[in-house]
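Subject: Sanity check before I submit

Could someone independently write out the structure tokens for this chain? I want to compare against mine line by line before I put it in a report. The sequence has 247 residues.
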Amino acid sequence: MKDLWKIYRLQAYENDLLYLREQIGLLDPGKELEEKKNNASSLLKSGRDRQEANNKRLKALGFETLELDKQIKTIEDKLYGGRPVNSKETAQWQKKIDDIKKKRETIDEESLTLIYDNEGLVDEIKKLEQDYQLVEEEYKKYYSLYEGQLKDLNSRMEDIESKKKKIMESSAEELLKIYEDTKMNRGGIAIVALQKNFCTGCGMTLSERLLERARSRMTLEYCEHCGRILYWEGDKGAAQQPVASQD
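---
Independent answer below. Compare away.
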């Protein structure tokens, strides 16, 4: 059969496409590195958020300290402003001053703790920034490589899809139907090559009569054992010419 080589080539293209799809599925876009980058980013954000929260709290404590200082001054003005006060009032105001000063001491302690924490955060954040930059660069390089591999595989698939389309457009509908039906009934493999005197689909030896008919390429022949279409590539298994140059 004159156009038998076309479905043999069609099957090869389909196998190539299947292989390339599997290769695309096996590509790693750098999930581990991306997770590592996200973790580094999260740690850096956490450090910066903590520093910002400390600064906000220090600012609030500063305003509170000013307000307490004003209250102390107001009370002291009453105590020492020259207006006569009795001992009871003096004791009450003095107690109030003491209470305010205790509160101020608590604020000072908290402020000092926050200042110390921020001092440590400066170095910590700097280290986290360096860690993030390193892993980000590593991820970018890896992802760039992944994109290149993906682009190459997709390009090869497009090329094969184009060749497959030409084969199908130039093949008889009847032959394509036979190919598709055989493929469906034979585990996805419709046509196999002859090698010496056996079928490469099932590995079984073929009769001389069938071999002669298959090698003549005059008719469509099937393996006596597995039922697949037989194709003889020639004594040297020479490659076929491009679709455009064959009839």
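---
OP: Matches mine. For the report I'm noting this point. DSSP finds five helices and three strands in the chain.
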